[in-house]
Design goal:
This protein is α/β, with parallel strands linked by helices. The protein has 14 helices and 20 strands. It is elongated, with a radius of gyration of 25 Å. Bound molecules: ligand BES, manganese (II) ion and zinc ion.
């Protein structure tokens, strides 16, 4: 889909369809008013007839309206004017897209993007029109022998914006983010026998080539030399070689410290010797979603040419049972020198992350943000709505929360209080890798905090938000929008 800005008068626009907003009171938006005048009152006549009441999520397609150049006019219901908020706006974009997608219109123009949304700048409207439409267009059929044929004729979408403001930049950035969201979704949706650690490394090298990033892949031998005993304990049961993927984007001044993004890259989590139950185990192919999201975010940063330095670190391996696999009770030594008693081999994410987080020190980071499908407990706490956020720096935490709100990819902060550290005590090693049933997402974050004392750090637990289950099973691409918004704000600062 190609997106571009239009500022022409609505009645004069040559397009397959022009979409304008009407409110529930029967009040017309500015563009709808102009169409009404040009069509000699046709629009208000239709409202009077009761075929369109302006209700939220409703849409009515009109064909060949006299006095109007566009082939079709789509009336989009916006609900009550004083209640026109983010949710109502997104609902209107969805309704317009759904009404359009099965028509023969090759291009269309959304003019209701000009209707102000409570508390939002105009660029926000454009941005989310692009993201919502791209969400509607996404399909994953890479693994079907015969992909379903698509009816969709729509190739171009114009979005209304008054001339001469930040519209072009907003549009470009939104497109870059939407593409990166798709990149993350594709990686997540690929099965574990295709999306292996080696495959992730290959994809990372492709990004590096396209955007001229510095790249390096650490192999098992190098991990051994670096003393990454925690990471290596997870890969022991697998036949796939582990990879530690390193990408560097230099968009800022040389001496500027980088934002380091660390993503959990377990390409399949069987639980290991602490084997998971069988039901829905296939969904553990999504356990590399953190990795996908940080690769997507650095890709987007490079595509948007943000003026800052970003590093992506992806520790990647499988978690499998096997004769050589780590056993409950085994004690391993992490790169930091701290020892860990592995009481449950299914708490593997923190084991690969802790060594990546220690490795991150080498970049002298401005801040480190790790993203991981870390705990089922986080799903219990926050469901599929918000990602769990933890941080040792309140300023960083509030920036991430704000980025989540603005991008409609919300996070919610949970505590990292000292009181919880108690639960990680081990009789035999410096710490255990599990903290028992209570506050499982918190104790997982507490475990990570033992490796992040030397820099500003935040952790996003995306176990509940990175993919959907059931009928709509699939990757969501979260938290790519949150990360991208955070990086944009940092590069503007
Ligand atoms: N990858 C899982 C967490 C997960 C669960 C992600 C559900 C997405 C959906 C993680 O490695 C895991 O197995 N965590 C265990 C930790 C426990 C053993 C302390 C869990 O949450 O049960
Ligand atoms: Mn696990
Ligand atoms: Zn896992």
């Amino acid at each position: 889909m190609e997106f571009s800005i239009k500022s022409a008068l609505p009645e004069k626009l040559k397009t397959g369809c022009i979409a304008v907003g009407v409110f529930e009171s029967g009040k017309l938006s500015d563009a709808a008013k102009m169409l009404d005048v040009a069509s000699n009152g046709h629009v208000s006549e239709i409202l009077k007839g009761g075929d369109m009441e302006g209700r939220k999520g409703s849409a009515l397609m009109l064909h060949r309206v006299a006095g109007i150049t566009a082939q079709r006019v789509l009336l989009v219901g916006l609900g009550k004017e004083n209640e026109f908020d983010e949710k109502a706006y997104v609902g209107a974009v969805e309704a317009a897209f759904n009404a359009l997608k099965d028509t023969g219109a090759k291009d269309a123009a959304f003019y209701f993007t000009a209707v102000p949304v409570k508390g939002k700048e105009f660029e926000w409207n454009l941005h989310h029109a692009v993201l919502v439409v791209m969400e509607g267009l996404y399909r994953f059929d890479a693994m079907k022998s015969k992909p379903e044929e698509r009816r969709e004729a729509l190739k171009k979408l114009f979005l209304y914006a008054p001339e001469g403001n930040g519209a072009e930049i907003a549009l470009k950035q939104a497109a870059a983010i939407a593409e990166s969201v798709e990149f993350a979704k594709d990686l997540g949706n690929l099965p574990g026998n295709v999306c292996t650690p080696s495959y992730l490394a290959e994809k990372a090298l492709e990004i590096a080539k396209t955007y001229k990033l510095e790249s390096r892949i650490l192999e098992q031998k190098e991990m051994k030399a670096l003393g990454m005993g925690a990471l290596l304990s997870v890969t022991r049961g697998s036949h796939e070689p582990p990879k530690m993927i390193l990408l560097e984007y230099h968009g800022g001044p040389k001496n500027k410290k980088p934002i380091v993004l660390v993503g959990k890259g377990i390409t399949f989590d069987s639980g290991g010797i602490s084997l998971k139950p069988g039901a829905d185990m296939d969904e553990m192919k999504y356990d590399m979603s953190g990795a996908g999201s940080v690769l997507a975010a650095i890709r987007a940063a490079a595509e948007m040419k943000l003026r800052l330095n970003v590093v992506a670190i992806v520790p990647s391996c499988e978690n499998m049972p096997g004769g050589a696999a780590t056993k409950p009770g085994d004690i391993v030594t992490s790169m930091s020198g701290q020892t860990v008693e592995v009481l449950n081999t299914d708490a593997e994410g923190r084991l690969i992350l802790c060594d990546a987080l220690t490795y991150a020190e080498k970049y002298e980071p401005e801040a480190v943000i790790d993203v991981a499908t870390l705990t089922g407990a986080c799903v219990v706490a926050l469901g599929h709505v918000a990602s769990g956020l933890y941080s040792n720096d309140e300023q960083l935490a509030s920036e991430l929360l704000e980025a989540g709100k603005d991008s409609r990819d919300r996070a919610w902060q949970l505590p990292l209080w000292e009181d919880y550290q108690e639960q990680l005590k081990s009789n035999f090693a410096d710490m255990a890798n599990i903290g028992g049933r209570p506050a499982g997402s918190v104790t997982a974050a507490c475990f990570l905090s033992k490796f992040t004392g030397n820099y500003r750090w935040a952790h996003l637990d995306v176990a509940g938000t990175a993919h959907r289950s059931g009928k709509h099973k699939g990757s969501t691409g979260r938290p790519v929008p949150l990360l991208c918004r955070f990086l944009i704000e940092r590069s503007n600062a």
